[in-house]
Every structure is written in C-alpha cells, then in structure tokens.
Q: What sequence folds into this?
C-alpha cells in the first residue's frame, strides 16, 4: 500500500490505519465520535493526500473540461472552483470531482483516490486537444475543517480570508511554506483544503496543529470524515455514486447544466429527465435499534424496494441514519420502510436531507 508524506506523524499520534483506495490511511487517532464532534464544534485537521490531482493545460483546456464535466465551467472566474461530475455516455458517473479554474489555460481537477488512474485515462482520452497531466505525485493535501478553521488558518497565513468566499482559492504562504488554499471541504462545515508540495506537508501539519491548540483542534481520520459527510448527505464514490448510477438518481441534478451545450452523457441524461427516474437516493432514519449499512436491503410489505449505500450512528444526532436507493414509489419524506439487518426487519422512515445542517 502507498503512504502519504505524513505517515510517520500519524504513527506518532497513535493513529489506527486502514487500507483505502490502495493507501494506508489513518482511520482514527482517539475515537471517531470525538474527532467528529471536534470538527462540528471547533476544528479538525485531515490528511487527504491520497486524493488525486489532474491538470488540463493549453488553449483548449477550458473547452475540454466543459465537455468532460456536467457543470458549467463558464460560470467560473479565475480562482474559483465548482463541484462537478465526469459521466459516461450512458449517464453513469465516472467520478465526482472538484474543478479549479486557475486561468484560461489551466484547470486543476481533484479526484477520488481510488479513481485517480481510471480518471486520468478517461480525461486523457477525451480532452479534445488539451494536455492532460497527472500531478498527483506533486501534491500533498490537508483539510482544515470546522467553525474555527479560518480563525486558526489566519494565525499562520497572511491572506485576506474575508475576500476568499466559499468555492474560491488563492496561493500564499502557510506556516512558512507555499500552498494553494481552497475554501472547500467535505464535512458540512466551513473549512479549507491546502494543496502543497509533499516535502512541505509536515511543516504545514505541525504548524496548523500548533496554531489551533488553543482553539481545540484535533487530528481527524477517515472515520470521522465519513460520518461527517454522511450527516450532510454528501455522496461517496463506490457507495452513492457508481458507473451504474446517474446524477439524476443521486439527487445531483442541480450540478447538471443541460443548457450549457454538449457534454459527455448529456443525451442519456436528457432522455432520463424526460422519462423520469425509476429510483432515487433517499435519507433513512431507523425508528428502532439497528444501524443500516451498505448493501442491506430496504423493504416494504415483505418486498425489497431498494438498497442501503451508506449508514452509521450519527454522532451529532445520536440516531442511526443511512442513504439508499429506493424505487420511486417509496421516496416521499415520511414513508415508512424497513431495513433488513442480519435477518431482522428494523423499522425506518424516509427523512428530509441533509440529516445535519448548520
């Protein structure tokens, strides 16, 4: 398995490691619940250097990205970012990504760790005259998330943070090292993602932990990252998103800009929009003890009507929650359903998403 530049630092903090996307990553340091609540209440620092970075370069970079992705890149100015998707001609999702418009001839894509190689092959094969460069080895990536994240970052970075709105990014010095700071995240809280040279990662990691000590910052692992994103109903590739699911089924139709012109997957998605989806992603909350997990059957009157894609005991809400795809007839908020958990049907209800909203 691959390791990030901060592996030794995680060891020193007593991290427990798991395999994720071919990487040996810290899943927790103390407990998932403690780290989750630190992010919700104060701030947490994540090492997400396993994520991939792909750059499109040249005079055709913007046009290539516009055709590759479902969102509308023309809505961005230099220094702005947007959430988007790479889709197959069938409308299925290749990956969900963050698109950063650096300038008129450079676009930086942040992609999921497990998909980096396949995403690069897909982008390189469909980049229409632009140059595709896999820059994943050139970056480490830290995520500082939580209501006190900006306060902490401002202690080690002189940038005017009030002038960097969400989904914008700037370059500047952080703890004596150069970084690209993006006002983005994956937790449902305010926060920043810092792209830096791998050799500078330890200085940034230590500098941020030291700056945030008085604010109660905590190092946080992939376990908390998953429970945080799930409370906010943010999709995870391989769970809510796959090559067999479409953005319309995943409630991501707001990302798909049909009026921007042609893009890969548009024709299939136009047809699906006209016909209507047959299944849709919903939020579930159990009404009796039991936690829904990926792969569990969702049932109604003894019949399977869907499948759970993600589930957990919510540290913020204290209740068992889950996401899953169900047939269209059972997607209304308030619909009673059941989840089959180890041979037992546990009562559940379709609830409004997201589960958590600050």
A:
């Amino acid at each position: 398995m691959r390791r990030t530049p901060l592996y030794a630092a995680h060891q020193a903090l007593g991290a427990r490691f798991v395999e994720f996307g071919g990487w040996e990553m810290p899943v927790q340091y103390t407990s998932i619940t403690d780290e989750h609540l630190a992010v919700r209440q104060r701030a947490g620092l994540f090492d997400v250097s396993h994520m991939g970075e792909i750059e499109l370069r040249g005079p055709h970079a913007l046009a290539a990205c516009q055709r590759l992705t479902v969102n509308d890149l023309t809505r961005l100015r230099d220094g702005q970012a947007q959430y988007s998707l790479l889709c197959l001609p069938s409308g299925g999702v290749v990956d969900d990504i963050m698109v950063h418009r650096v300038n008129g001839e450079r676009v930086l894509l942040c992609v999921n760790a497990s998909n980096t190689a396949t995403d690069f092959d897909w982008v390189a094969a469909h980049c229409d005259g632009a140059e595709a460069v896999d820059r994943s080895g050139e970056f480490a990536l830290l995520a500082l998330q939580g209501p006190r994240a900006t306060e902490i970052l401002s202690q080690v970075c002189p940038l005017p943070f009030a002038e960097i709105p969400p989904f914008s990014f700037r370059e500047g010095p952080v703890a004596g090292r150069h970084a690209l700071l993006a006002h983005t995240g994956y937790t449902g809280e305010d926060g920043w993602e810092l792209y830096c040279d791998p050799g500078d990662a330890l200085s940034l990691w230590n500098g941020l932990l030291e700056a945030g000590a008085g604010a109660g910052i905590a190092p946080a692992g992939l376990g908390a990252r998953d429970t945080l994103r799930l409370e906010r109903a943010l999709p995870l590739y391989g769970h809510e998103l796959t090559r067999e699911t479409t953005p319309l089924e995943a409630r991501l139709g707001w990302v798909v800009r049909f009026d921007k012109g042609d893009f890969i997957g548009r024709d299939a998605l136009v047809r699906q929009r006209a016909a209507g989806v047959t299944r849709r992603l919903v939020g579930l909350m159990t009404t009796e003890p039991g936690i829904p997990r990926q792969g569990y059957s969702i049932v109604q009157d003894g019949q399977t009507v869907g499948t759970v894609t993600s589930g957990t005991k919510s540290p913020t809400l204290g209740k068992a929650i889950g996401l899953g795809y169900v047939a269209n007839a059972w997607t209304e908020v308030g619909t009673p359903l059941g989840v089959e958990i180890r041979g037992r049907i546990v009562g559940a209800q379709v609830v409004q998403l997201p589960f958590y909203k600050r």
